[in-house]
Design goal:
Blueprint lengths: L3 E7 L6 E2 L1 H14 L6 H7 L4 H12 L5 H16 L6 E2 L3 H10 L4 E4 L4 H10 L8 E2 L12 H10 L6 E5 L2 H9 L3 E5 L6 H7 L1 E5 L2 H6 L11 E3 L3
Parallel strand pairs: 1-4, 1-6, 4-5, 6-7, 7-8
Antiparallel strand pairs: 1-9, 2-3
């Protein structure tokens, strides 16, 4: 029976980059500007979805309707406000080291984000990535998380099947999308979700963040020359 290599697909925001709450505050301020008051916890619960779906889901939940022009202005305001927090955004502890370990061990991996490439570039630069690292952004697929399109695109770039991938993410939306792609999921607490929530959404194990995963890398079977799994 053939033994297959497994690839790791890493979410970006909240998983490798410490910026979840900057995103929440930027959305909060943008909504306040147009007179819509939303508790920050509700915003946090939606974070990790694609931007368009985030707004739609939030408006449905609070019973407010916005025109397409109003949504466009809201999203632009959010982007401008988020830029103001740029100086407080950094790579999470152990993120660069974890990715370097993957490369040194010749384990296939990619970065998968619901952000558009133009907005993700500055965060990607914080990770000091090689130009050869596959990166899949919102611009490259029809639908973002919780749809599985991003993971299918990343698996194709790595020449593997999604069922042979392990998705690493900090939100339930990452893990729901992973399940829809028939991939295994690893949850990080760095996005503010609890262990039980992440496990319920599909994580088979949970770590504090990149540094914790790297210190326990044997627990996910990440071995040099690729992770080996034997299909049943």
């Amino acid at each position: 029976m053939k033994i297959r290599d497994t690839a790791f697909l890493f979410d970006l925001d909240g998983t490798l980059i410490d910026n979840v709450y900057q995103h929440v505050l930027a959305w909060k301020e943008a909504l306040d500007e147009i007179g819509i008051s939303v508790p920050t916890w509700r915003l946090h619960r939606k974070l990790g979805m694609s931007g368009g779906l985030f707004v739609q889901a939030l408006m449905a939940e609070i019973g407010t309707a916005l025109t397409s022009d109003e949504i466009a202005r809201l999203r632009e305001s959010y982007r401008l406000i988020y830029r103001g927090y740029a100086g407080t955004v950094h790579a999470l502890p152990g993120a660069k080291e974890l990715l370097r370990h993957m490369s040194d061990a010749e384990i296939p991996w990619a970065i998968v984000t619901s952000a558009h490439r133009s907005s993700a570039l500055s965060r990607l630069a914080m990770l000091e990535l090689s130009a050869q690292v596959p990166v899949v952004t919102r611009d490259m697929v029809k639908h973002a998380k919780p749809d599985p399109d991003l993971f299918f695109a990343a698996a194709e770039l790595l020449d593997v099947e999604t069922k042979d991938c392990i998705v690493v993410g900090d939100s339930i939306w990452d893990l729901i999308a992973a399940r829809r792609a028939q991939a295994l999921g690893i949850g990080f607490l760095s996005g503010g979700y609890g262990s039980e929530e992440l496990i319920k959404a599909g994580a088979y194990c949970v770590f504090d963040g990149p540094a914790d995963m790297l210190s326990k890398i044997h627990e996910v079977g990440a071995r040099a020359q690729g992770v080996r799994i034997t299909p049943g």
